[in-house]
Input
Amino acid sequence: MRSRRTDLLYRSTVFALVTVLLCGMFSGCTKAGTGSSGNGGASSQPAQSSAVVSGEESGGENSTADLGTAHIYYTNEKYTSLIEYTVTMDPALSVEEKVDELLTLLSEPQNDLKSIIPTGFRVVPEISYNDKGQALLVMYIRGSYSSLLPNTENVFRVGLAKSMISLKELSGVQIYANVPNEAGESPMTQISSLIADTIIVNESDENFFQDEVSFTLYFVNAKGDKLVSEKRTATVRMSERNADKVMAMLIEGPRVDNHYASMPPGSAVNEILIRNSVCYVDMNESFVTNQVGNVEQEMLTLYSIVNSLTSLYSIDTVQFLIDGQQRDIYKTVQLNTAFTFNQDYIETP
Output
């Protein structure tokens, strides 16, 4: 078997995720452990890498041009940031061997950091080639993906995609996982797709990484008595959350003919908090005062939000606040309750 010596060069770059602000630089790396219990690595990944870690910084934005150079990402104890390392590998390795090497290293976090691969999860890579010889990497996630907390999922998905797309030989990276749908099934679903050009080389900007995400939104039908679904693909930056994107698109309104806005004029989101699969949506006062419809219209407004948010894998229920306070009643219907996805309000074909 080919002997492989991989040098990891620490880069003191921390990318903030979600709403977390991180300060401080990391330096002075030493020999790390092997991704055993306590570091969150997936034991079913390839065998331990012969990695050596030094405290040197990598050589600028063109360092990935070398076929033997790539980047990998670890996270902190709370899964709220990505910490980048530069990897130098034998350029003679095949792309399949390099992918296996990166997966091994991803499960071997340095110092007191944690692997981005959650405990109990496994990444199964498959590489295919087009007629031009360009390699596409497809990774299948084995594990209970829907059980991941939002920040853990974000770190896992983003860090994994970014690590692999840094291999110059790869023209694209796709990630699939079992994600629940409205029918209560969990088919293998694409959760991320990147091509090399997706990465914007600007490491001082936390939003240099972008991901195209598919959303299902619910607006009011032409009769005004039911909700209709509208598929939308949107660019989500690294600092954004899918729930924030959903609410922004609902407030913006539909883009399909015969679909109508569900939100009262002037509606705005004060804050969104997600805890234990519960999404707390704090709306402004205009969301209440500018609601002029009857009971049916109130329910369509509420369930356009609820059904759209619970279509995200990480959200099961929605609770509403108005300017930071709980309210018993919206205009005429009960508001101080936990809302779940409701098929009854959706128009049937």
